[in-house]
Write a structure and sequence with these properties.
Structural class: alpha+beta
Number of strands: 9
Strand content: 15-25%
Radius of gyration: 18 Å
Strand order of the largest sheet: 8-7-6-5-9
Length: 203
């Protein structure tokens, strides 16, 4: 699931199907059966996927191929903070659906919560050939990214750096960009407020 979601082909995973599985209880534990249940017809998926690819290509077309990897990562980071908004409406009203947790929701609605920010950032970076990982934390109830640049690993949290997401009113903050969580080391992220219990940060 995570591997598929690292490319544009995984953007519509949540739209296309939900899944359940039966776990074997003998040692060692393993998934003995998985049943996929499709939630939309193929023709709807195909149309949505084409729309998603068009939007992804439009964003990537703004990236200069001559830029370095950090410059490309910075451009996308700033683009997210300026063009997208934090989805407080769907976050506080589950009846509106779970699109706010997906890259699909980010692209189509222009809004998402941290999971949507991180998934879409991951997909765009992967398309540019930049190694990126989606990171989630139960303790922080949050998600962000880790990038590998020149053999070193750096944290990037587009959600935290989107100034508008820190105010439900968003008055006077939309379009402002912070860089306090861009290409930061592990210790810097902890000082920024990312709690880190043992094994809590999951790739």
């Amino acid at each position: 699931y995570t591997v598929a979601y690292s490319t544009r082909y995984g953007v519509l995973t949540d739209l296309h199907y939900r899944y359940n599985y039966v776990m074997a209880f003998d040692e060692p534990w393993y998934i003995s059966e998985m049943k996929l249940t499709y939630s939309v017809p193929d023709e709807m998926y195909d149309a949505a996927f084409e729309d998603v690819c068009t939007k992804i290509d439009a964003i990537l077309a703004k990236v200069d191929p001559d830029w370095s990897a950090p410059e490309k990562a910075l451009f996308l980071h700033d683009y997210f903070c300026i063009q997208f908004n934090y989805d407080y409406e769907r976050l506080y009203d589950p009846s509106l659906g779970s699109e706010c947790y997906t890259a699909y929701g980010m692209l189509i609605n222009g809004t998402a919560v941290c999971h949507g920010y991180a998934w879409l950032y991951n997909i765009l970076l992967s398309d540019l050939g930049i190694e990126s990982y989606f990171v989630s934390s139960a303790e922080n109830n949050h998600a962000w990214n880790i990038l590998k640049l020149d053999g070193c690993y750096y944290h990037v949290d587009c959600t935290y750096d989107d100034s508008a997401q820190r105010s439900t009113s968003q008055i006077g903050l939309a379009g402002q960009v912070d860089h306090a969580s861009f290409l930061k080391a592990h210790a810097a992220m902890i000082s920024r407020g990312h709690k880190c219990s043992q094994y809590d940060w999951v790739l």
